[in-house]
Amino acid sequence: MGKWLDLHMHSVYSSDGEFLPETLMQMCSSAGLRAVALADHNSTKGICEAQKAAIKLGLLYFPAIEIDCTHEKHDFHLLGYGICYDEKIFKEIEQNVYEQELERSGKILNIISELGFHFDKKLIVKSPNGVITAETIAEEVLKDLRNKDNELLLPFRRGGVRSDNPLVNFYWDFCAQGKPAYVPMHYISLGAAVNEIQKNGGAAVLAHPGANMGKNYEITKSIIETNIDGIEVYNNYHDAETTEFYEKICHEYKLIATAGSDFHGKTKPSVKLGGVEHPAAYAAYEQLMGKIRKRGGETVGCL
């Protein structure tokens, strides 16, 4: 069928997203996509806007969210597809994370400065909701001429090994869990998030696990025991070896193997809408639809 499905993208309602939901749906249509899901970080605010645009454009649309959560002291992202997005729990999750992110913003600024990176705090642009992201800080750090000889930044500059998506890679290398500028957050447990997604009509899918833990069979097995429905196997963070690792796990445990680009816009310039494809895309779509219908969840449109 060609590139027709992308189940992971972000709008301005994610603090690191670039485009309005309506614009994003127009971009999906122009890219030839037919089945899509806007899955903003801990937020359902953009769903209604995206849904209206998707209907006009003739797209099949999954109401979705990407929830930050913890499991065995590791931070993970959990995708919820087909959720009844007006439910109170999703608004509570959003408010809780938002308040923590506001408080964390200043702390990250200070730590990045203490690590020896130069930047003008007056030039740091806040996201529409007031949160300062690591990607925004990275943009100013990489532009500041005082850092031009800093060897730590060479991988993110043109031709460097991390230069494909320098801003978000800066986040993963300096601000993610276990890195020097990491500021802890208190998230809902993964098991509780799975339960909330499923009892509110949705299918729970572990997002890009390779980015969070590499290839870890034991932790993945314990996550599967929380009753997840699937794993985002096909994602821009996964190389061929990681993809094969999670393909085998999905086959072993009869989980849905989904595909999503994790498109954000300028924070991930090498990531394109519909840029992740695999032969089993239609089967995964059918399985997701089956789970959502069984639980009384929501989708809009049809193929």
What does this structure look like?
47% of the residues are buried. The protein is 40% helix and 15% strand. Strands 1, 2, 3, 4, 5, 6, 7 and 8 form an 8-stranded mixed sheet that branches. The chain has 2 domains: 5-93 and 187-295, Metal-dependent hydrolases (TIM Barrel, Alpha-Beta Barrel); 97-175, no CATH class. It has helices spanning 21-30, 47-57, 88-114, 134-143, 166-175, 190-199, 209-213, 217-224, 240-253, 281-295; strands spanning 5-9, 35-38, 60-71, 74-81, 188-189, 203-206, 230-234, 256-259. Strand 1, helix 1 (21-30) and strand 2 (35-38) form a beta-alpha-beta unit. Helix 1 runs parallel beside helix 2 and helix 4 packs across helix 5 (166-175). The mean pLDDT is 94. With 303 residues, the chain is an alpha/beta fold. The chain is built from 10 helices and 8 strands.
Summarize the structure.
This protein has ten helices and eight strands.
CATH fold call of the largest domain: TIM Barrel
Give the mean pLDDT: 94
What percent of residues adopt helix (DSSP H or I)? Answer: 25-40%
- What low-confidence regions span 5 or more consecutive residues with pLDDT below 50? none
What would you say the CATH architecture of the largest domain is? Alpha-Beta Barrel
> What's the CATH superfamily of the largest domain, by name?
Metal-dependent hydrolases
Order of helices and strands: EHEHEEHHHEHEHHEHEH
Please report the number of helical segments: 10
Which shape, going by the Cα principal axes? Answer: globular
**Strand percentage:** 5-15%
By DSSP, the count of extended strands is 8
Q: What is the level 1 CATH name of the largest domain?
A: Alpha Beta
Radius of gyration: 19 Å
Structural class: alpha/beta
Could you give a short account of the major beta sheet? 8 strands, mixed
Please indicate the count of domains: 2
Measure the end-to-end span: 12 Å
